[in-house]
Amino acid sequence: MSLLNKINTDNLPKHLAIIMDGNGRWAKQKGMLRAFGHENGTKSVRTTVEACARLGIENLTLYAFSTENWNRPKLEVELLMKLLISSLKKELETLVKNNIKLNAIGNLDNLPKVVQKELLEVIEKTKMNTRMTLTLALSYGSREEILNAVKKISDKVKNNIISIDSIDETVLNNHLYTHDLTDVDLVVRTSGEHRISNFLLWQIAYAEFYFTDVLWPDFTEEHLYEAIISYQKRERRFGKTSEQIK
Ligand code: IPE
Ligand code: IPE
Ligand code: MG
């Protein structure tokens, strides 16, 4: 039986978040420059996006560039920005064809103006699409996101728009970049690293985790199916007992 047939489409993660890691090591293993790894990583992005849409996943969030990634060598950052622009141009058609809506989270103002322009254009052209929301985390840092939310809420308290007593989890959630997304159900990280690297700290409070040694450019549909099958074998108890769930 193929892996796809083992997936129960009634129990898909509603929100899948992927830390796409290992492009640099993939290239190094082949004796190539890191850039080659990033270029090949974009192919895995396309395969994953299309496979998720076909399966019926409602929300896919991809960690594409972190606030910390700005500290990489200037040339690598420039290349990643160029790749982002070319991918956005190239993939618009795929998004439209598959009825996928593009969304972006992060400190987008820090992105080069050309990237912002391209991004906004694709977001605008896909805003009516309904099959799946693809969120790109770009110049994204979770601590920064939470800090910004705290500042925005504090400002509202100061201006008597809301009271301290009314601040609850929903209010905080509504001030995050992800305000219109559901909590993350499954986090996948490739490349054998077992860490979160400042990704969606608030939103993963009750997520399941799946780590694989596969490097991102080698990640295929089958690897995605393996992650989902693993997720579906788990019992999510949310603090309750197993008996309460059944
Ligand atoms: C992930 O691959 C892509 C980004 C973080 C932009 P890396 O570039 O981190 O690859 P490794 O971890 O060095 O192998
Ligand atoms: C995390 O990968 C960020 C992205 C995948 C975009 P990194 O490769 O930057 O993570 P660390 O710094 O090694 O944890
Ligand atoms: Mg890495």
SSE blueprint and pairings:
Elements: E1 15-19, H1 23-29, H2 34-55, E2 59-66, H3 74-97, E3 100-105, H4 113-126, E4 132-140, H5 142-158, H6 169-174, E5 186-189, E6 208-211, H7 221-232, H8 242-245
Parallel strand pairs: 1-2, 1-5, 2-4, 3-4, 5-6
Helix pairs in contact: 1-2, 2-3, 3-4
Bound molecules: 3-methylbut-3-enyl trihydrogen diphosphate (2 copies) and magnesium ion (MG).
One 3-methylbut-3-enyl trihydrogen diphosphate binds at residues 20-25, 65, 69, 80, 191, 216.
Question: What brief labels describe this structure?
Answer:
about 250 residues, alpha/beta, Undecaprenyl pyrophosphate synthetase, 6-stranded parallel β-sheet, 8 helices, 6 strands, about 45% helix, about 15% strand, globular, binds 3-methylbut-3-enyl trihydrogen diphosphate, binds magnesium ion, UPP_synth-like, EC 2.5.1.-
Number of DSSP helical runs: 8
Describe the largest sheet. 6 strands, parallel
Approximate shape? globular
Give the SSE string.
EHHEHEHEHHEEHH
The largest beta-sheet arranges its strands as: 3-4-2-1-5-6
The computed structural class is: alpha/beta
Q: What's the CATH H-level homologous superfamily? A: Decaprenyl diphosphate synthase-like
CATH architecture field: 3-Layer(aba) Sandwich
- In CATH terms, what is the fold-level topology? Undecaprenyl pyrophosphate synthetase
User: How many strand segments?
Assistant: 6
Strand content: 5-15%
Question: What percent of residues adopt helix (DSSP H or I)?
Answer: 40-55%
Provide the residue-averaged pLDDT: 98
Termini gap: 28 Å
Which small molecules are bound? 3-methylbut-3-enyl trihydrogen diphosphate, magnesium ion
CATH C-level name: Alpha Beta
Radius of gyration: 19 Å
How many domains? The number is 1
- Poorly predicted ranges (pLDDT <50, ≥5 residues)? none
Protein name: Isoprenyl transferase
Binding site for substrate: 22-26, 34, 38, 66-68, 70, 72, 189, 195-197
Keywords: Magnesium, Metal-binding, Transferase
Enzyme class: transferase
